[in-house]
Amino acid sequence: MSAFSEAALERKLSELSNSQQSVQTLSLWLIHHRKHSGLIVTVWERELRKVSSSVPRRTDKFSHSSLGKNLLHSLLQHKEPWDVSPESPEDAHGGAHHNLDNAKPNRKLTFLYLANDVIQNSKRKGPEFTKDFAPVIVEAFKHVSSESDESCKKHLGRVLSIWEERSVYENDVLEQLRQALYGDRKARKRTFEQIKVDENNCSAQSSPSDPPQTTDLIRALQELENAASGDAAVHQRIASLPVEVQDVSLLDRITDKESGEQLSKMVDDACMVLADYNGRLAAEIDDRKQLTRMLSDFLRCQKEVLAEKEHKLEEYKRKLARVSQVRKELRSRIQNLPDLSRLPNVTGSHVHLPFAGDIYSDD
Fold first, then answer.
1. What SS3 class is residue 160?
2. Would you say 241 and 263 are in contact if contact means Cβ atoms under 8 Å apart?
3. Tens digit of pLDDT for each residue in 268-327?
4. Is the dihedral of CA 251, 256, 259, 263 positive or negative?
5. Residue 276 · residue 124 · CB < 8 Å
6. Is-above-0.70 flag for pTM?
7. Which of 64, 146, 310, 329 has its CA 20 to 30 A from that of 90?
8. Residue 87: its pLDDT value, please?
9. Residue 53: pLDDT above 70?
10. What is the pLDDT of residue 258?
11. Measuring CA to CA, which residue among 126, 122, 128 is closest to residue 36?
């Protein structure tokens, strides 16, 4: 990983393209330098507001409609590999009027995709980015939404729905995000069942993914060895939380401001520990779901390969039977043929056959 500096971050943000690989690469770099999370968020917000109106050019020229849909789905589902394919010929060519009308919102939307990826994936490391993005994310949503069309707002709504279901932020922040996105058209929070139906529809419409490599499966299994659910230290810390922070009825024991402030600090610390651990558990659940999909794809592929190999085996068994029959018939015929090696050797004897002249002579 390259060294961190504000100038390096500005350069990377200016080079950020609307491709999945670009978002993922920069996200990993930011998470690696998470100790600078405060500065990273400040620069991210500043660059978001002054971002240029054109998206960095790509040779494949994907349009917003296809790229945004696939990119968002991959970021939210942690889908690998990071493939993007156009939905239609029109999307692949990217009409000029479509690109000009939506270029600026598209670029800003990519910044929010980056923030989403960083916030969700950094939970495994710590809560820094979740905390530092909280004060600016509402205004960022409002800023991007104000310059976006309905298609772009739909993608923003999808991000918000996932954050609600995974409790990425507390309810007051999520409510502000809903207000920023929908304004007076206050959107009802979708139920878990609705989210699952939406995800199942996306899965049903997509083609079966390529089977994972064996090394990818091994790596995913090894990563789960250090999952949040196995963190004994955090388990002990949560178990040892004082009863005062867990029972609201005990608030009646507070008799002075000093004890109230002391308890308030304890409650804040407990909330931070539990929120961080819940985030890590949510990330672990996502990892296990991804592993389940990988294993399902791997098993499906192995079943297909097994069926193919069994078909080949039957085919070669039939060929072996035909060749064995030919060999058996050939051996039978060879036994019925005369053995030329047992005939007398006429060429090596002293008996000479008569010449034609001797046969027709007058004598």
1. helix
2. no
3. 888 888 887 888 888 888 888 888 988 999 999 999 999 999 999 999 999 999 999 999
4. positive
5. no
6. no
7. 146
8. 33
9. no
10. 86
11. 128
Which of 42, 64, 43 is CA-nearest to residue 55? 64
**Cα separation of 110 and 115, whole Å?**
9
pLDDT of residue 100: 31
**What is the per-residue pLDDT for 58?**
42
The arithmetic mean of pLDDT across residues 59-63, rounded, is 39
- DSSP string across 295-351: HHHHHHHHHHHHHHHHHHHHHHHHHHHHHHHHHHHHHHHHHHS--GGGS--STTSS-
The C-alpha atoms of residue 296 and residue 302 are separated, in whole angstroms, by: 10
Q: How large is the average pLDDT for residues 72-84? A: 42
| Of residues 39, 95, 28, 108, the one with CA closest to residue 65 | 95
CA distance 9 to 250: 48
CA distances from 103 to 20, 27, 71 (A): 17, 22, 16
Following DSSP, what letter does each residue of 240-260 receive, concatenated? TS-GGGT-GGGGGG--SHHHH
Taking residues 343-358, what's their average pLDDT? 63
- Token pair for residue 259? 């004890």
Task: Pull the structure tokens for residue 24.
Answer: 């993922």
How many residues belong to the chain? 363
pLDDT of residue 203: 47
Q: Cα separation of 49 and 37, whole Å?
A: 19
The least confident of 14-18, 74-78, 121-125 is 74-78
CA 118 – CA 328 distance, rounded (Å): 71
What's the 3-state SS for 81-94?
Answer: CCCCCCCCHHHHHC
CA–CA separation, 185 and 106 (whole Å): 23
Residue pair 129/169 in contact (Cβ under 8 Å)? The answer is no
